[in-house]
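Hi team,

Below is the intake form for 23S rRNA methyltransferase from [Ruminococcus] torques. Please confirm the fields before the structure is written into the shared record.

FORM ID: S-0412
PROTEIN: 23S rRNA methyltransferase
ORGANISM: [Ruminococcus] torques
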Amino acid sequence: METVVLLSQQKPDDTIEIDLDLDELDATSAEMKATYQEIKDYVLKEFGLKVSNLYISQIKRKCGIEVGENYNLPKTENPKVPQCPKEKEDAIKAALKYFAMI
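The structure came back. Fields below:
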């Protein structure tokens, strides 16, 4: 059994022209985000420092950037969470500025 729906009254040879000014369009949120790997690569290349996803997440939270929920939670009640050193924090912030996230 086949169903055919008539979507428009135009013939296949008809065309529709639309003018878009791309300067007026805002960048999408996906275009403004850098991945954790891109941030790690930038920090390593520019500062020679290796940073973890945990440190990047901590700095993003400090800057008010939304981060996803952590599903890899520790099993102990009071886990020791290492805090990002100042040197790495500055490098991550520089990367976030480079990628126009802050």
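SUMMARY LINE: The chain is about 35% helix and 0% strand.

Thanks, M.
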